[in-house]
């Protein structure tokens, strides 16, 4: 399956299933405890956002989560981590089956995160940007006591503005560099990425978080790209002007979030590296997965608390992950 763009510049297919799960059920899918299953892969930065938000909001008991393996073929993500290589709730081997059950002629990407309606086995949506916002707004009735406001009304305009350029230049920017099919397209994406990272460094020099003095949706979206930067994007996608660990402000910011409950404890560095280096063979033909980098430095002191801020605002940190969702110690950062 080719990933490098034959047209030179990589353009992401953003034709996602726009159906929403809402409190009023206006699209035919009302919020109901136990009805839906969030399908993710810990390898995927877009899915990692949903894992973090679900955990911060304490939705584990009302929204179950299925975890696909880190590698896939051209057909889709598989449940090879589960006994019998089937999702234990949906009973399917591939996420593709839930898409085809609703849309037999579905011709777009089979992507994670995806919300699946358990009674019918049909996918509801894979619109990753809307999924996390709806978890904050439409699922509010089921948030844990002390859940943070990740998309507070007073900051939405600011959050939306930050999210727009972070998506274009950073979240998707690393892919525009990595999947570029020409030198010109690569260099354009490379400079756009690092120009934005420099601007974000300037912004975060004087404030602890991207919008306001608490963690918001904006921080979740930037974090999942930063967590993958040194293990993958720096080498695999040729984003090699600087490692994250060589950008002092962003590195401290990323470590601050990593050490915050709900962030670093969702990161599986083994899955992340296996996915990119094994699956994207037109970029890495041998499929060899790098051993490094050393991850212990994620747990070093960051000093960001000196900038003030309250990570969870008037809320509280989430409890530890439920046992079935704990990232193996050997897959994370260890002191």
UniProtKB/TrEMBL annotation:
GO terms for cellular component: cytoplasm. The record marks 233, 276 as: Lowers pKa of active site Cys. Glutathione binds at residue 77. Residues 324-335 have a biased composition (Low complexity). Residues 152-283 form the GST C-terminal domain. Residues 306-335 are annotated as: Disordered. This is Glutathione S-transferase. It comes from Winogradskya consettensis.
């Amino acid at each position: 399956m080719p990933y490098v763009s034959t047209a030179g510049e990589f353009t992401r297919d953003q034709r996602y299933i726009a159906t929403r799960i809402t409190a009023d059920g206006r699209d035919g899918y009302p919020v109901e405890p136990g009805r839906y299953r969030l399908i993710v892969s810990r390898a995927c930065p877009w899915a990692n956002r949903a894992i973090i938000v679900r955990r911060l909001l304490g939705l584990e008991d009302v929204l179950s989560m299925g975890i696909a393996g880190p590698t896939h073929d051209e057909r889709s993500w598989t449940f090879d981590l589960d006994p019998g290589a089937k999702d234990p709730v949906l009973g399917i081997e591939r996420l593709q089956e839930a898409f085809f059950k609703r849309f037999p002629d579905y011709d777009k990407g089979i992507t994670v995160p995806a919300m699946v309606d358990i009674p019918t086995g049909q996918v509801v949506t894979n619109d990753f940007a809307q999924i996390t916002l709806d978890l904050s707004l439409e699922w509010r009735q089921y948030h844990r006591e002390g859940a943070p406001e990740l998309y507070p009304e007073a900051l939405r305009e600011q959050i939306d503005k930050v999210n727009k350029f972070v998506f274009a230049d950073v979240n998707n920017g690393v892919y525009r560099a990595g999947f570029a099919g020409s030198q010109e397209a690569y260099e354009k994406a490379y400079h756009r990425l690092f120009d934005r990272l420099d601007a974000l460094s300037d912004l975060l020099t004087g404030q602890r978080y991207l919008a306001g003095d608490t963690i918001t949706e904006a921080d979740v979206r930037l974090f999942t790209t930063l967590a993958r930067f040194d293990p993958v994007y720096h080498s695999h996608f040729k984003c090699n002007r600087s490692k994250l660990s060589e950008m002092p402000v962003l590195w401290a910011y990323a470590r601050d979030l990593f050490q915050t409950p709900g962030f670093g404890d969702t990161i599986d560095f083994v899955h992340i590296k296996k996915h990119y280096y094994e699956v994207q063979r037109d970029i890495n033909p041998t499929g060899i997965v790098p051993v490094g980098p050393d991850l212990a430095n994620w747990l070093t002191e960051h000093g960001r608390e000196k900038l003030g801020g309250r990570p969870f605002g008037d809320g509280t940190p989430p409890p530890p992950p439920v046992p079935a969702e704990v990232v193996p110690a050997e897959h994370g950062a260890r002191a």
